[in-house]
Design a protein that fits this description.
The complex is a heterodimer of chains A (156) and B (104).
Chain A (H helix, E strand, L loop, with lengths): L1 H5 L10 H7 L14 H5 L3 H9 L5 E2 L3 E4 L3 E2 L5 E7 L4 E7 L7 E7 L3 E9 L5 E9 L2 E11 L7
Chain B lengths: L4 E8 L2 E8 L22 E8 L2 E8 L8 E7 L6 E8 L4 E7 L2
Antiparallel strand pairs in B: 1-2, 2-5, 3-4, 3-6, 6-7
Chain lengths: 156, 104
C-alpha cells in the first residue's frame, strides 16, 4: 500500500541523505520514504513547489480540510499549524507558505493506520496564507488560513 | 541521544497520539553570522520516520521552513499499551538521531 503513497512524490532527486540513512540501518528498505523531493523544497514559488511535489498545481478547495493556525503570530520563527481532515484514505498532508523563500515547508506521508491530523511548527517570513494540500484517495484537496506575522521568522 | 528528542505517546480510545520534539537548529542557510558576515550553513532535518512495531506510521519530509527544535504531533490506530514507537531522523549534513519509547 505504501508504494501508492510514494508515487505522490515525483521528481525525486535524492540529496543522498536517504542513502546515508539506509546505510546506517535507520530506515529499512521496506519502510523507506520516497526520496527527498529536492526540486519541490528548492522551488521559489508555491505553484512550482506544489507541481514538483504532487505532479499537479490544481488541488480542489475543500471544506473537509481544516487549517488551524493563529490569526496573529507574534514570532514568525515558530508558528504552530494543525491540519485536520476527515477525508478517507489520506496519503499525504503538505504545508506551504507562499511568501517564504522556499514555499514548501513540510510534507507528511500517512500510513493507512494514520489519521488525517498533523501539528507542526513552521517558519513564516511575513504575513501570508498557510496552505495545506491533502492527498486523499489519489486526489488533491486544499484549504488555507491567513496568518498575520508581526516579527518575520527567517532570522533576518 | 536522550537529550536530542522528547517523545510522548499514549493511547486513548484506541487511538495513539504522539507528541515529539527534536532538538535541532534547523538553519535555513539564509542567515548570516553577525560577527563575520559569513552565511551560516544550512543545517536542517530532511526526513523523519516514525515506526510502530517496525511499520512506518508517519514519514516526514522537511525543509528549512520548519521551525527550530521542531515539534510535531500525529495520531494513528492499531497500537496497544506497551508497544514500541521509534522515531528516526536524518538531516542535510548526514547527521542522524533516533529515539524509542513505549506507548502508554
Amino acid at each position: 500500500m505504501l508504494s501508492k503513497r510514494r508515487t505522490f512524490l515525483q521528481a525525486g532527486m535524492a540529496a543522498g541523505t536517504l542513502a546515508v540513512a539506509a546505510g546506517a540501518g535507520l530506515l529499512t528498505p521496506r519502510d523507506v520514504l520516497a526520496a527527498w523531493p529536492e526540486q519541490a523544497f528548492k522551488a521559489k514559488k508555491y505553484p512550482d513547489a506544489l507541481q514538483a511535489l504532487a505532479g499537479s498545481a490544481e488541488p480542489a478547495s475543500s471544506d473537509a480540510v481544516k487549517v488551524k493556525a493563529p490569526d496573529i503570530a507574534e514570532n514568525g520563527a515558530v508558528v504552530s499549524v494543525t491540519v485536520t481532515t476527515d477525508l478517507p484514505e489520506v496519503e499525504n498532508i503538505s504545508v506551504f507558505v507562499p511568501v517564504n523563500t522556499f514555499p514548501l515547508s513540510a510534507s507528511f506521508e500517512m500510513s493507512n493506520a494514520t489519521e488525517g491530523f498533523i501539528t507542526a511548527r513552521i517558519k513564516m517570513a511575513k504575513t501570508s496564507d498557510v496552505i495545506a494540500v491533502v492527498k486523499a484517495n489519489g486526489k488533491l484537496y486544499t484549504a488555507k488560513k491567513s496568518v498575520k506575522v508581526t516579527l518575520g521568522g527567517c532570522g533576518g | 541521544m536522550a537529550n536530542k528528542m522528547k517523545v510522548r505517546a499514549w493511547i486513548d480510545n484506541g487511538k495513539t497520539t504522539v507528541k515529539a520534539i527534536i532538538f535541532h537548529p534547523m538553519e535555513t542557510g539564509l542567515r548570516k553570522d553577525k560577527a563575520s558576515g559569513k552565511p551560516i550553513p544550512a543545517h536542517y532535518i530532511t526526513e523523519v520516520t516514525c515506526e510502530h512495531n517496525g511499520k512506518s506510521v508517519l514519514g516526514c519530509l522537511w525543509g528549512p521552513g520548519v521551525s527550530k527544535n521542531p515539534f510535531f504531533s500525529f495520531r494513528f490506530s492499531g497500537a496497544q499499551t506497551g508497544d514500541s514507537l521509534k522515531i528516526s531522523w536524518v538531516d542535510n549534513q548526514g547527521q542522524t538521531g533516533n529515539s524509542e519509547v513505549k506507548i502508554s
